[in-house]
Amino acid sequence: MIIEDDPDDDIVIACAITAHADMIISGDKHILNIDKYENIPILTVPDYLCVWLKLCLY
Fold this sequence. Notes:
The chain is of the alpha+beta class. The protein has helices at about 10-20, 30, 45-55; strands at about 25, 35, 40-45. It contains 3 helices and 3 strands, in the order H-E-H-E-E-H.
């Protein structure tokens, strides 16, 4: 079990690992509480947009 507070959310982490995702974008508090899993950062939508905008400005 990865997310002890809500084991049903483990599927999100498992999918990200299987897909070799660069990041997980979520609004779920249980997923956000772990911050990063196996070098996959977990971001809120606003945090992702900040990252995306910085990448697009360069």
